[in-house]
Specification:
Order of helices and strands: HHH
Helix content: over 70%
Strand content: under 5%
Largest sheet: none
Mean pLDDT: 77
Distance between the termini: 117 Å
Length: 81
C-alpha cells in the first residue's frame, strides 16, 4: 500500500512539474496584458487632461464679470443723455 502511494506521489509531482513548466513558457496572455496596461495609461492621461482643463476653465469663469447692465432704459444705457 505504501509503495502504491509513493508511486502516486511521484507521478503527481512529475505531472505538476510538467504543467508548471508549460505554463511558465506560455505567452498567450502577454498581448492582452500589454493592451490592458496601454488602455489604463491612456485612461489615466485622459483623466489628467480633463482635470487640468476643468481647473483652467473654472478659474477663467470666476474672472467673468456678472454685473452687466441688462436694463432696457436707454437713458441709463447711453449714460444719461
Amino acid at each position: 500500500m505504501k509503495e502504491l502511494s509513493i508511486r502516486g506521489w511521484i507521478s503527481l509531482t512529475s505531472t505538476a512539474s510538467t504543467i508548471r513548466a508549460k505554463l511558465r513558457d506560455d505567452e498567450r496572455g502577454l498581448t492582452t496584458t500589454e493592451w490592458a496596461l496601454l488602455v489604463a495609461g491612456v485612461a489615466a492621461l485622459a483623466i489628467v487632461v480633463v482635470s487640468v482643463v476643468r481647473n483652467l476653465t473654472s478659474d477663467v469663469a470666476g474672472d467673468i464679470p456678472t454685473n452687466v447692465n441688462v436694463g432696457t432704459d436707454t437713458e441709463d444705457f447711453l449714460g444719461n443723455g
